[in-house]
UniProtKB/TrEMBL annotation:
Name of protein: Phosphoenolpyruvate carboxykinase [GTP]
Classification via InterPro entries: PEP_carboxykin_GTP_CS (IPR018091), PEP_carboxykinase_C (IPR013035), PEP_carboxykinase_GTP (IPR008209), PEP_carboxykinase_GTP_C (IPR035077), PEP_carboxykinase_GTP_N (IPR035078), PEP_carboxykinase_N (IPR008210)
Superkingdom classification of source: Bacteria
Keyword line: Cytoplasm, Decarboxylase, Gluconeogenesis, GTP-binding, Kinase, Lyase, Manganese, Metal-binding, Nucleotide-binding, Pyruvate, Transferase
Subunit description: Monomer.
Catalytic activity as recorded in UniProt: oxaloacetate + GTP = phosphoenolpyruvate + GDP + CO2
Originating species: Agrococcus jejuensis
Lineage: Bacteria, Bacillati, Actinomycetota, Actinomycetes, Micrococcales
Cofactor binding note of this UniProt entry: Binds 1 Mn(2+) ion per subunit.
HAMAP family, sorted: PEPCK_GTP
GO molecular function: GTP binding; kinase activity; manganese ion binding; phosphoenolpyruvate carboxykinase (GTP) activity
Residues at which GTP binds: A280, C281, G282, K283, T284, N285, R396, R427, F521, S522, E523, N524
Role of this protein: Catalyzes the conversion of oxaloacetate (OAA) to phosphoenolpyruvate (PEP), the rate-limiting step in the metabolic pathway that produces glucose from lactate and other precursors derived from the citric acid cycle.
């Protein structure tokens, strides 16, 4: 592989000519883009500017190639059908290539950077033959903001470029900022399907061999073989979480898998909340919540990633570094997320949903019954008798944030919003209560470190199995999670009295028949109201062995027809079940050689309290 770009490089004229770099492009960028072009041998190099005209020509290219088809019922919208084997993140092909294997920690797949460079060098050689290499300068967060960061992605996939238009801020002003000396992250992506001269392309080129590789020390990303979102839109999980988490560790801030919302009441109550849930556990729905209880309003700031830094006022400020939403389509409906439904009525790229004969999209859960006349996500005719879903369970929509009716006016404020509460959640059918507050920051870090959740279709693997997913960052932390927990403890120390309160929630409790105990969705506002009350010091809680739970009557359930006893069940502490769980937590912690002592102390404390119960 070519080496990472070097600041102060001087670019030869030949390099500029080879890639047609715009005047004024930083020599370090020219040198690096040229070195990747020499390796991958694209037929053309195209410098992207993020304009509507550029988007229009990408659409033409993709329509010609059959990558997308129009969705006439929704203006400016398209459906992409992926290769059937390229539908989700591939965690066991995702690598952290730190110099020292211990820096990747026990939860990541580590590869030696030298040997990975060699492997990738072979794979990328000639990988873009016959294709266009797009150069995408992008910013995470508003360009020039104090929490924002810049990157450049090189890709041979027009689908990736079009998606990056929605998901990041693409523009030549990024190249200008880099030329003025701003730091940036280099990211290279290829679908790994060079086109022989005269050979016809396939609609969704990809390669059965996939490598999603990160080099934390040199801040590089190299991704090969997949065009699916989290594997290919390198600004998202690869940069904004895996590489950014390493930068955050080194620079004293946080890069987290969290939504950001503001909830306000007519009477002036106000709460800014950041919440971590594993992929496909309802972050987008919570980010666009329509409160069921009167007086409250929710504004969306982000639905997937939060970058948080201490602001001038000493409190933790968060930005959403993204520019759009890459949300799970199945299950999205007027009942579960009317805001998202409104947002998707135009200018949306759908991936792997079904198409109706009258030119609209459909997915499981959108309506109770499937419409007559459907083509499934693979392009085959489909009826309810087909015995398979019409949309892939991880089918997605890609849409700009500004299209969201609930987006906050100041959602892209460079300095972010002050976070009052941090929430951790997962999909747990039993035991974990509806809501709980951690006693203090250290206990909160313990709660975050011990989240577990049933696996969803967002990644390859057995759906339904419960796995520990600390901070919902298991697939996304770019370094040793023992060090990551310590970093969180350090941040709390530094924030002191300004530290946000920490909570856990679980919307996914089930009864004996498998039905949900809690109605969820807009009714989750009741839980957020209690959280707001705890932050303000007005809501009552009882201190239990596992944390602070709502006191009798403190959670407003008026007007909900919860069956007798259900609320008690949602808020009970089942000591034997928790004691059994702590055995698993203990084993989970034991794999971390660098586990901070504070987490052991918390585990012992919780165990001791449960034994007293
Ligand atoms: O595929 S993505 O990683 O972008 C989305 C997700 O799994 O959260
Ligand atoms: Mn996510």
């Amino acid at each position: 592989l070519p080496p990472p770009p070097t600041a102060g490089a001087s670019a030869a004229k030949a390099a500029r000519t080879l890639i047609g770099a715009p005047d004024g492009t930083a020599p370090s960028v020219v040198e690096w883009v040229a070195s990747v072009a020499r390796l991958t041998e694209p037929a053309h190099v195209q410098w992207c500017d993020g304009t509507d005209a550029e988007f229009g020509s990408l659409v033409e290219t993709m329509l010609d190639a059959g990558t997308i088809v129009p969705v006439p019922a929704r203006p400016g919208s398209y459906l992409a059908r992926s290769h059937p084997d390229d539908v989700a993140r591939v965690e066991d092909r995702t690598f952290i290539c730190s110099v020292d294997d211990e820096d990747a920690g026990p939860t990541n797949h580590w590869r030696d950077p030298e040997s990975m460079r060699e492997t990738l060098g072979g794979l990328f050689q000639g990988a873009m033959r016959g294709r266009t290499m797009y150069v995408i300068p992008f910013s995470m967060g508003p360009v020039g903001g104090p929490i924002s960061k810049l990157g450049i992605e090189l890709t041979d996939s027009p689908y990736v470029v079009a998606s990056m238009h929605a998901m990041t801020r693409v523009g030549t002003n990024v190249l200008d900022a880099i030329a003025e000396g701003e730091d940036w992250v280099p990211a290279v992506h290829s679908v790994g399907a060079p086109l022989a001269a005269g050979r016809a392309d396939t609609p969704w080129p990809c390669n059965p061999t996939k490598y999603i590789s990160h080099f934390p020390e040199t801040r590089e990303i190299w991704s090969f073989g997949s065009a699916y979102g989290g594997n290919a839109l390198l600004a998202k999980k690869c940069f904004a979480l895996r590489i950014a988490s390493v930068q955050a560790r080194d620079e004293g801030w946080l890069a987290e898998h969290m939504l950001i919302v503001r909830m306000t009441h007519d009477d002036g109550r106000r709460l800014h909340l950041a919440a971590a849930f594993p992929s496909a556990c309802g972050k987008t729905n919570l980010a666009m919540l329509k409160p069921s209880i009167p007086g409250w309003n929710v504004e969306t700031i982000g639905d997937d990633i939060a970058w948080m830094r201490t602001g001038a006022d000493g409190s933790l400020h968060a930005i959403n570094p993204e520019n759009g939403f890459f949300g799970v389509a199945p299950g999205t409906s007027e009942a579960t997320n009317a805001t998202a439904m409104a947002m998707l009525d135009r200018d949306t790229i759908f991936t792997n949903v079904a198409l109706t004969d009258d030119g609209d999209v459909w997915w499981e859960g959108m309506t109770k019954h499937a419409p007559e006349g459907l083509t499934d996500w693979r392009g085959e005719r489909w009826t309810p008798e087909s015995g398979r879903p019409a949309a892939h369970p991880n089918a997605r929509f890609t849409v700009r944030a500004t299209q969201c009716p609930s987006i906050a006016d100041d959602w892209d404020a460079p300095e972010g919003v002050p976070i009052d509460a941090i929430v951790f959640g997962g999909r747990r059918p039993s035991q974990v209560p509806l809501v709980m507050q951690a006693r203090d920051w250290e206990h909160g870090v313990y709660v975050g470190a011990t989240i577990s959740s049933q696996q969803t279709a967002a990644a390859e693997g057995p759906v339904g199995a419960i796995r520990r997913d600390p901070f919902a960052m298991l697939p996304f932390c770019g370094y040793d999670m023992g060090d990551y927990f310590r970093h969180w403890l350090d941040i709390g120390q530094r924030l002191g009295r300004n530290a946000p309160a920490i909570f856990s929630v679980n919307w996914f409790r089930r009864d004996a028949d498998g039905g949900f105990l809690w109605p969820g969705f807009s009714e989750n506002a009741r839980v957020l109201e209690w959280i707001a009350g705890r932050v303000a010091g007005t809501a009552d809680g009882v201190d239990t062995a596992i944390g602070v739970l709502p006191s009798d009557g403190a959670l407003d359930v008026s007007g909900l027809d919860l069956p007798e006893g259900v609320l008690d069940e949602l808020l009970e502490v089942d000591a034997p079940a928790w004691l059994a769980e702590l055995v698993d937590v203990d084993a989970f912690f034991s794999q971390f050689e660098r586990l901070p002592f504070g987490l052991r102390r918390q585990l012992n404390h919780v165990r001791w309290r449960l034994e007293q119960q």
